[in-house]
Amino acid sequence: TDPAAIRNFCIIAHIDHGKSTLADRMLQLTGVVQPRDMKAQYLDRMDIERERGITIKSQAVRMPWEYAGETFAFHMIDTPGHVDFSYEVSRSLAACEGALLLVDAAQGIEAQTLANLYLAMEHELAIIPVLNKIDLPAAMPEKYAEELAHLIGCEPEDVLRVSGKTGEGVDALLDRIVEEIPAPVGQPDAPARAMIFDSVYDTYRGVVTFVRVVDGQLGHREKIQMMSTGVTHELLEIGVSSPEPEATKGLSVGEVGYLITGVKDVRQSKVGDTVTSANKPAEAIIGGYEDPKPMVFSGLFPIDGSDFPVLREALEKLQLNDAALNFEPETSTALGFGFRVGFLGLLHLEITRERLEQEYNLDLISTAPNVVYQVTAEDGEVLTVTNPSEFPEGKILEIREPVVDATIIVPAEYIGAVMELCQSRRGQLEGMDYLSEERVEIRYKMPLAEIVFDFFDQLKSRTKGYASLNWQAEGEQAADLVKVDILLQGDKVDAFSAITHRDHAYAYGVKMASKLKDLIPRQQFEVPIQAAIGSRIIARENIRAIRKDVLSKCYGGDISRKRKLLEKQKEGKKRMKMVGTVEVPQEAFIAALSSD
Ligand code: GDP
Ligand code: MG
């Protein structure tokens, strides 16, 4: 295809503002999906995407569009909207020349609208402002067109108004794409360079790699090379998604399509990497390649210890399709054998856990998630701590924790509530701007650890659901952090150790000790529960001793009833874990680890 007839664009929006629905209408209007095959959120293929109504993986679709007697080829890239997947969003943007900035006409600009807009501006994309959902009775297109025009510096009349649901205004939008988004430019005769913006594992076809060709061309059966690793593969298939895969002879400058090489692991086809031709390799990789960096770690343990091999296999399978997932075996005295797993964020953790439970039928316990700390021990050695159990004993010179720049958008009446919450989470106010008279953008620098765990829920409840939040990693800072251990009868229970700010340590210790007091049954001897920082005890509870006699419950001489009780007790024993000399039912661990 002649690059002059190509338009590459993505749709960027705050979550739920209607990207996937608008994409559906485009698939229909351009005729690539027949009405009888249409289903809502057509491009959200994964079960979990359909269930949660969110987009996790990017998608690229080629669609034809007639404009002034000429046929154009559109490549639309539907991007994941969540902050956990922002690196993928940024790669998708890098594959485009333009972006449709979609805003819900009943909601207005939200935090991810801004975050995505700024990303699009960094990539120098042409931006087409669009108000969506104008069919809603609550839509206020005039008001929000002004907000949007003000934000990007255009006239309110330039803001398109559409409904992804009814299709109103969508054909005008498709025309605007031809008019306003520049055609791709590249060097057709240069060595091939194509950027990977997504790769997915397909049971039948192996890894399917989505690329945007920048220079040169890639052809069927060609030998390709991954520039970050130098590894070569033969191209078994090359083609475009329309939206079903269609094999072609090749892809040239500006085109977006897929490659299949027969590899079975997405980590060999990394998002952000550059594909070149092995016989005539290019010199420079496109853009800066980054390895996905896990931000949050948690231990995952099977409730039934014999499921450990199943869990390993399941994680390995998920990893085929998720280069950001990494894990290593971990042993806990309390929870047995499991894995320490690194995630991009809490949504990534939740989704992974849900998939493990649903697709692999596993019952799991996950330990309280924590961020990554840089700990300088007394001898000057710097340790990267992803698990409280790796926290060095002895004196510590410094602990550094990750920090983020957070942006919160709320109606002005909630400024006080938001500031109070952010201050209580060790936030530092960085700035505040009014988007309009009623709505304000508040910026804070905050520790990541304070924002990933239940901050958003708190924010929502304090603002009646009106606040939206976005953040991005912004380096590290030294902080007064300590490790709190929980001890039963003097023995550490590793699964309950946590790294917290010194000011929160006492509260954590008291909470865990009193939870455990209620959860652990009395034993034949007294069991002290202690919370400690190093050797200093900061909280203490006691479980009083009893003499346990199951048979005392049986009044009569019913022997079968007695036998049943004894059997029941035996079964119960299997689910008991020994911590030192203390028997703890596994349920107690699960209950203590579940957040309240
Ligand atoms: P995404 O998260 O941006 O992909 O948003 P979705 O396309 O999944 O849409 C979120 C919700 O808004 C869904 O319940 C859609 O049915 C609804 N929605 C999307 N577009 C429109 C629209 O134009 N009008 C109305 N009334 N609802 C819409
Ligand atoms: Mg979506």
TrEMBL record:
Catalysis performed (reactions): GTP + H2O = GDP + phosphate + H(+)
SUPFAM superfamilies: EF-G C-terminal domain-like, P-loop containing nucleoside triphosphate hydrolases, Translation proteins
Ranges where the Tr-type G domain occurs: 4-185
Membrane topology: Peripheral membrane protein
A GO BP annotation: positive regulation of translation
Function: Required for accurate and efficient protein synthesis under certain stress conditions. May act as a fidelity factor of the translation reaction, by catalyzing a one-codon backward translocation of tRNAs on improperly translocated ribosomes. Back-translocation proceeds from a post-translocation (POST) complex to a pre-translocation (PRE) complex, thus giving elongation factor G a second chance to translocate the tRNAs correctly. Binds to ribosomes in a GTP-dependent manner.
GO molecular function: GTP binding; GTPase activity; ribosome binding; translation elongation factor activity
Record's keyword annotation contains Cell membrane: yes
One Pfam family it belongs to: LepA_C
Keywords: Cell membrane, Elongation factor, GTP-binding, Hydrolase, Membrane, Nucleotide-binding, Protein biosynthesis
Name of the featured protein: Elongation factor 4
InterPro entries (alphabetical): EF-4, EFG_III/V, EFG_V-like, G_TR_CS, LepA_C_sf, LepA_CTD, LepA_IV, P-loop_NTPase
EC number: 3.6.5.n1
Annotated compartments: Cell membrane
Broad class of enzyme this protein falls into: hydrolase
Family: Belongs to the TRAFAC class translation factor GTPase superfamily. Classic translation factor GTPase family. LepA subfamily. Belongs to the GTP-binding elongation factor family. LepA subfamily.
One GO cellular component, as annotated: plasma membrane
Residue positions binding GTP: 16-21, 132-135
Organism: Nesterenkonia alkaliphila
Entry keyword annotation includes Transmembrane helix: no
